[in-house]
Amino acid sequence: MANDIEIASYDPKKVNVNINGKIITGFSPDGVINVVRNEDIVTPTVGTKGDVTYNENANESGQVTLHLLGSSSSLPFLRSLAVKRKEIRLTITDANDAGAVQFAEERCRIIKPPDLAKAKEIGSTDINIFVPTLNYR
Q1: What is the tens place of the pLDDT at every residue in 28-62?
Q2: Is there a smaller number of Cβ atoms within 10 Å at the N or the C end of the chain?
Q3: φ and ψ at residue 55, rounded to 5 degrees
């Protein structure tokens, strides 16, 4: 019966990245963003008799990778922030119905300036951003 089937739609246009008040544009066909924690939030330890202890990890840091085209108009802005070693405010919003996520974090840093590559066809480059406290909302 069709009523038991979950149907969702995803629109990449509903995923937005904002850095210091500027909307980032020019994402590559490989994706928009990748958000990961740097470490597990909990590590279970199982004793010899099966007793379990959860070790909570205080490290809440993470990394956000932006996947941009080599022609993205956001690259000079991001390169400048990296070279000047500026702290940034990073906001990511996903307004899709299924799996919507949002976070806004302060004191983030671009880990290194974006790579510069020129070839026969336009390529893509990744921007890696360190996030001291990664809180999903």
Answers
A1: 998 899 999 999 999 999 999 999 999 999 999 99
A2: N
A3: -95, 110
From CA 64, how far away is CA 15, in angstroms rounded?
14
Place of tokens 């850095």: 19
At 136, list the tokens: 């999903």
Query: Which residues are within 8 A (CB) of 94 and not within 5 positions of it... i.e. 6 or more apart?
Result: 14, 15, 16, 100, 101, 102
Following CA atoms 75, 68, 34, 95 in sequence, which dihedral angle do they give, to the nearest 10 degrees?
A: 90
Running DSSP on this structure, what letter comes out for residue 131? E
Q: Determine if the pTM surpasses 0.90.
A: no
From CA 126, how far away is CA 28, in angstroms rounded?
Answer: 9
pLDDT of 130 > 90? The answer is yes
Under 8 Å CB-to-CB from 28, ≥6 apart: which residues? 67, 68, 69, 124
Quote the CA–CA distance of 6 and 72 in Å, as a whole number.
Answer: 36
The structure tokens listed for 114 are 């974006």
- Cβ(9)–Cβ(16) below 8 Å: no
